[in-house]
Amino acid sequence: MHATALDFVTRALSAEDVEGLRVLEVGSYDVNGSVRPYVESLRPAEYLGIDQSEGPRVDRVMDCLDMVDELGAETFDVVISTEMLEHVRNWQASIEALIDMVCLGALLVITTRSPGFPYHAYPEDHWRYTVEQMRQIIEGAGLEVLMLEPDPDPGVFVKARKPEDWTGFNYDAWSAIEPTKPS
């Protein structure tokens, strides 16, 4: 976990966002730090950490593409994914799955890496996203961008809300988005 990513989550999520609510962390394996202690200090009703591998801070082993089938769509009030999206093979399906897990009116928080961040193959490394690409992804998914910031590490940070009147994904908006490969 990059210190800047943890800092973003502490600025993006308050007790008002979390207390008494259901939180899902996707990609929760604690490699070098975790947002979990901070988010749990905000007193959620439930905190579930999932990852494709068993390890520290992982409550259930599962691929993010299976979570809708296994946990049910629109079942969490806050969905967090830190430093995971650069590692998935299919970014579109993974982001769609993250959004599918978010209840109407609820929050999605993402941190990921941007071009210029070095290759890091744990477990794999596939993508780099710019701030503008992430804006297009989030807005194309029909979500309201609440915070969108560059990370100087380099990376990108997002806090978004799934509207109460969400009408679904605009896949055409995603057709021109091409995250870069790490170098």
Strands, count? 7
Q: Which strand order do you get reading across the main beta sheet?
A: 3-2-1-4-5-7-6
What percentage of the residues does DSSP assign to strands (E)?
25-35%
Give start-end ranges of low-pLDDT stretches.
none
Distance between the termini: 20 Å
Explain what this protein looks like in three dimensions.
The chain has 183 residues and is α/β, with parallel strands linked by helices. Helices cover 27% and strands 26% of the residues. The protein has 7 helices and 7 strands, in the order ααβαββαβαβαββα. It has helices at residues 3-12, 15-18, 36-41, 67-71, 91-101, 131-140, 171-174; strands at 22-26, 46-51, 60-61, 76-82, 102-113, 144-151, 155-161. A 7-stranded mixed β-sheet has the order 3-2-1-4-5-7-6, with helices on both faces. α5 links the parallel β4 and β5 (102-113). It is globular, with a radius of gyration of 15 Å.
Identify the notable features of this structure and list them briefly:
alpha/beta; 27% helix; 7 helices; seven-stranded mixed beta sheet; globular; 183 residues
Short description:
This protein has helices at residues 3-12, 15-18, 36-41, 67-71, 91-101, 131-140, 171-174; strands at 22-26, 46-51, 60-61, 76-82, 102-113, 144-151, 155-161. With 183 residues, the protein is of the alpha/beta class.
